[in-house]
Structure formats: C-alpha cells, structure tokens
Target: Universal stress protein
Amino acid sequence: MVNIILPVDFGDSTEDLLKGAIKFAKEINGKLCLIHVAPADIGFAIGDMGFQYFPEVEQNEIKQELFSLNNLQQRILAEGVDCEHLLKQGIAGDIILDFAKEKNAGYMVMGSHGRSGIYDVFIGSLTKELTRRATIPVLVIPVH
Model:
C-alpha cells in the first residue's frame, strides 16, 4: 500500500481537497496520511504588557484541531480508504517533508491554493514550496 501525504489546514478548500485525495487513494490503493501543522505561536498575544503566553488558548486550539483531524480520518475510513493522522506544531514545510520521509510516502496531495491574497505575497504558497522541495511526486488538486 502506498502512503499518500495529505496536509490539511481546515480552510475553505479542505472539502474539495479531501474528495480529490480519497479518489486518488482509491485509484492507486493508497493510504492517506493526514498531517496538520499548527503554528508554533498559538497562545501568544501582544497587549499593553507586551508578549504574553496563554497556555489554555494553545491547549484549546490544539484540542479543536485534533478533534477536526479525527473527524476527517473517520470520514476517510468510512469511504473505504485506510488513514492515519498527525498534528504537530512548527514550520509547516519542514514538518510535512519530514513526515513524508518518515512514512516513506510515494505521493503528496496538495490543493492549488489554500490561503490566498496578501498572505501569499508576503509568506509564499506552501503548495509552491512543497512542489519545489519534495522528492516525491506532488499531485496538485484545483480547489476553489
């Protein structure tokens, strides 16, 4: 069975991306390996007193994201596709590529765009970065 890395950000395009990834996994008898990378700065805020850390905010956000990952996994399993998931915090590109290597993945599935607009101007597209840096084929699914 071929491992297929599927990074998810729970954005508006997640539903279309999920449908495309499930279809692809069925076609090649693949296993979907979901990964969500949460920012390392969850729980930090800037206020009158400067930077402050609120661990309860971070814990609640991580708990919600893990709940969402579990729901996606259950939906994929219900479609007859094997699936596992991982949630990590840090730099998305590096963590996703490390996960692909760890899973000895054969493919990665990404959306043509997730976040858009001014974010991509300053930060850059994760899909663009991963298609450039990945050593495995990256299937880019158009999502709108």
Remarks:
- Helices lie at 14-28, 55-78, 92-102, 118-122, 126-133.
- The two ends are 30 Å apart (CA to CA).
- DSSP finds five helices and seven strands in the chain.
